Amino acid sequence: MANLTYSAGCDLSCKLHLMKYYQTIFNIVPPSAELMQPCRELLADACGDCGYESFEDTDSGINGYVQQDQYSQTALDRVISSFPIDGVAITYTTESIPDQDWNAAWEEQGFAPVMVDGEVTIYDARHTVDPSVFNTPLTVGIQASNAFGTGTHETTRMVVRTLLDLPLDGRRVLDCGCGTGILAIISLMRGAAEAVGYDIDEWSADNAMHNARLNGIDSRLRVLLGDATVLSQLERRFDVVVANINRNILLADMVRFREVMSSGGTLIVSGFYTTDVPMLLDEASAHGLHEVGRMEDNGWCCLRLQLNRE
Questions:
Q1: What is the distance, to the nearest Å, from the Cα of residue 70 to the centroid of all Cα atoms in its chain?
Q2: Which H or E run includes 196?
């Protein structure tokens, strides 16, 4: 059982623990150019089974990121040797990501403002001098520090779009694998009564609370440290659950999401490819959830699921 830990008072300078990651650079040479994207997706799916948490496309293939204690060269070699597309050549190199370089990349590079449907602008609070220049009903400042969630990725934008379509006034929201806290923060700024987030990375949990303070809604957000097992210690249920994680974690944790949802509640999931939808819908159906909406963007997908009323 994971410990239930609140991350509410520690500023960004109080980094207690940062997970060590490897970056694996995969070079893919497909038998034809049109097979590059299917090869990327199949390789990412297979590496997700080996513990990889996130990926980014490159001109020559993909880069994958995995916690160092989850890395297995044997597992990677097995994935490549059994790759289902004939004639493809895959090579890779793996290197550790120095903590100081990881921090510097987030802090120095920053990100350009992201506008979603003319309703919300997500801006880099570290580098933006005057956020009042953004002409949208909502403006959300994010200081991303070793945490995912700035609106620059397709999956984050699709979840935000889905949240914009939902009535959130007075609702309770759960943000699973909250990263920067962006999804919980937007929910609260749109009228949610309260939100709870959790993340397995202590740095992300601290970052989420920091961003909540930046946006003036920290009194209505709690962030827990741990994986989905922390949900068993929560007494109240949630009207809306959002989870922008990878496919394998979604499949493993959907039963826990279901256990903390209110009757007729909404589950929004993303972080997976369109090819993963059938298995996710099968798992959802097994827990009384059915699809009521879907978005797709550049091969990524976001599903809106509803729990059957009791």
A1: 19
A2: strand 194-199
Is the four-CA dihedral 282, 45, 270, 224 of positive or negative sign?
Answer: positive
The C-alpha atoms of residue 83 and residue 42 are separated, in whole angstroms, by 8
pTM of the model: 0.73
Compute the distance between CA of residue 87 and CA of residue 85 in angstroms, rounded to an integer: 7
User: Using alpha carbons only, what angle is made at residue 17 by residues 153 and 245, rounded to the nearest 5 degrees?
Assistant: 30
CA distance linking residue 60 with residue 27, whole number of Å: 5
State the Cα–Cα distance between residues 51 and 174, nearest whole angstrom: 24
User: How many residues in total does the chain contain?
Assistant: 310
Tell me the H-state helices in the chain. 36-48, 73-81, 99-109, 154-164, 182-189, 202-214, 247-259, 277-286
* Burial label, 17 (beta-carbon count in 10 A; 0-12, 13-18, 19+): exposed
Residue 104 scores a pLDDT above 50: yes
Angle at 247 between CA 30 and CA 179, to 5 degrees: 110
Q: What is the pLDDT of residue 149?
A: 62
